[in-house]
Amino acid sequence: MSRRLSETKLALIFFTLTLAVSAYGIIEMQSTYHSSYIIYASKLGEKPNYYFVLENPDAYLLEAMSSQDYVNIGSPEDTPIDDLIRAKETSYFEYNGTYYAAGFGFETKYPPAIPFLLILIGAIASASSIVVVTSRTVSQMRNEFRKAN
């Protein structure tokens, strides 16, 4: 009895750990691969015909201007550049004597399929195994209880 029960406990611990690692993997992939709002600001080589003067850009727009790359933002409310572009009806602006083209959008990052499927299969297998081992242990304990009475 005690040997079977200790093997069962060991299996239960193993499957619980596998389930925990699988759950961590799913959470980690969701935090890495998620959709987000983006903005960009690229320097222009010449003065555009229509532009507006931007005197006090926010931190996200400053980062986009300095990196010349897309910058992830939490939500459109985090930066006023989209409102300014719509209000001024142009995406060109001037800041400190330099002309920029700005824009905003939505970026979706898709996780690679194979690791996600492996994590999902591991989570399902672990959860199923925990149910099987637990029900088997309960059955064994009931049988031994019946034999004792």
Which word captures the global form? rod-shaped
Give the spatial strand order of the biggest sheet.
2-4-5-1-3
Instruction: Please write the string of helix (H) and strand (E) elements.
Output: HEEHEHEEH
The unreliable regions are none
Summarize model confidence as the mean pLDDT: 81
Category by helix and strand content: alpha+beta
Rg over alpha carbons: 29 Å
Number of separate structural domains = 2
Between the first and last Cα atoms, what is the distance in angstroms? 16 Å
Q: How can the largest sheet be summarized?
A: 5 strands, mixed
Total strand segments: 5
Helical residue percent band: 55-70%
Percent range for β-strand residues: 15-25%
**Count of alpha and pi helical runs:** 4
Summarize this structure as a short list of keywords or feature phrases.
alpha+beta, 2 domains, 4 helices
Overview of this protein structure:
The chain has a five-stranded mixed sheet with strand order 2-4-5-1-3. The two termini are 16 Å apart. 56% of the residues lie in helices and 18% in strands. The protein has four helices and five strands, in the order αββαβαββα. It has 149 residues and is α+β, with helices and mostly antiparallel strands. It has two domains: 2-31 and 112-148; 35-107, no CATH class.
How would you summarize what this structure contains?
The chain has helices spanning 2-32, 59-67, 81-88, 113-148, and strands at residues 36-43, 52-53, 71-73, 92-95, 98-107. The chain is of the alpha+beta class. A five-stranded mixed beta sheet has the order 2-4-5-1-3.
